Amino acid sequence: MIKKQVNSVEDALEGVQDNMTLMLGGFGLSGIPENSIAELVKRNIKGLTCISNNAGVDDFGLGLLLKKNQIKKMISSYVGENAEFERQMLSGELEVDLVPQGTLAERCRAAQNGIPAFYTPAGYGTEVAEGKEVRDFNGKPHIMEKAFEADFAFVKAWKGDVHGNLIFKGTARNFNPNMCGAAKITVAEVEEMVEPGELDPNFIHIPGIFVQRIFKGERYEKRIEKRTTRS
Amino acid sequence: MLDKEGIAKRIAKEVRDGYYVNLGIGIPTLVANYVRNDIDVEFQSENGILGMGPFPKEDEVDPDLINAGKQTITALPGSSFFDSSLSFGMIRGQHVGLTILGAMEVAQNGDIANWKIPGKLVKGMGGAMDLVGSAKNIIVAMMHTNKKGASKLLKKCQLPLTGVHCVTKIVTNMAVLDIIDDQFRIIEHAPDVSIDEIKNATEGDVVVAEDVKPMPV
Questions:
Q1: The whole model's pTM is what?
Q2: What ranges in chain B are assigned the alpha helix state H?
Q3: Is ipTM strictly over 0.90?
Q4: Is A210 an 8 Å CB contact of chain B?
C-alpha cells in the first residue's frame, strides 16, 4: 500500500510558491484547512489565486492571508463577512471572480474527474453567462463552464490514514471531497490519523488515490461564525 | 398587512407531505417553524445536509454542523450529509421539490433579482443562481414594496438578474400572486388589504383571479 503521510505541515507545503493557484476546502469557517492556512501565512507566500467558497472573516480562515495581502485573486461564491476583503476589493488591490456555488463545486469535481467542461443552467441570462458558450438541451439554455486548474488543493478531513483515505464529519465535508485530486497536488490535513486498516473501507468518503500528502493538524480552533441556539 | 411571520405562515401551507425543501436566508428560514407536524418533510441546506433540525441547545452546539446561513443547527434522525457537488446535484437535478427564497425584484415574466445592487458592495450569489436556474417549484417570499415604498413586482427587473423566467409564485405582505402569461395574477389578498391597494403597489401588469379570496391565516 502506498504511503502519503508527511511528518509536518512544513513538509506538507513543500513546493508551494508565489503566484500559484490554490483550492481551499470549507464552507464559511466550517471544515477549513486551518493548519495549512497558518503555514501559508507563516511563509508569507504572495500573489495567490484562491479558489474557495468563502473568504473567511477578518481574523480567521482566509482572512489571515488577506490581512497580509497574500491573495491576488479570489474565486468564490459568497464573500461577505469580511471588512478587510471589502476594503481590498473596493480599492482594486484584490481581484474577485464570483461563481455560483453549485458551479464552483462542479468545476472542482470536473477537474477531479478529468472532465474539461460541462453545461449548466445556473447563471443563464445573467452577467455570469457573459462571454460563455450557450447551448440548448431539451429546450432549455445552458452555459458552458470549465474545470478549474490549480497547483495545490488544501483540504481538511476528520479522520485519515497513511494511505490518504479520508472521512469527513457533518457539514464540514462541503467542498473538501470535491477538491481532492482536483489540483496537481492535494494536501489533506486531518484531526485524527488512524492506524492503517482502522477505517472501514465501506465508509471511506475519499480514497487515497486522490491525495498526495496527508498530515495530522497540530491544533484546531474550529471557530463558529454564527452560534445560534434555542432554549 | 402581514408581517414576516405572517408571510412565512402562509408559505408553510404550500409545503406538502413528502417534499424535500430548500429554504433561503431571511423570511424563508421562518417557514420551517410553521409547517404542519402531521406531514413528512425534509429540509435541505445546500452546504450539505438533508434532514436539518432546529437550532441546537447550548450543550449541543457543533462547529461541524451548520446551515447555509452559517448558523449552528442540529441533524434529525434519518438525516444525511454530503459534499457540495452532490448537494447541487440534488438541486440541479430537480430532486429538491420546493425552493423558497427572498428577492429584491421579481418581473412579470418570472425573472428574479436578489444578489447585487450596483454601487453597493457585492457579496456574491452563493447558491441562488443554481437554485433558480433549475428548481421547478419556486416560491418567492418578500415584502411587496421596498423600504422607499417602491414596488418590487415590476414589468422588468432593474437590478442585475439572478435568473430568468423561473418564478411562478410570490407571497408578499399584501397578497399571494402567481405569474401566468407574463402577468402577475392576484389569487389571495391579505385580510385587511384591498385589491386596489395591491394593484397600486404593483408596477407590473396585474390581473385578478376570478376566485380571488382572502388569505387563510
A1: 0.97
A2: 4-12, 27-31, 84-92, 128-134, 195-200
A3: yes
A4: no
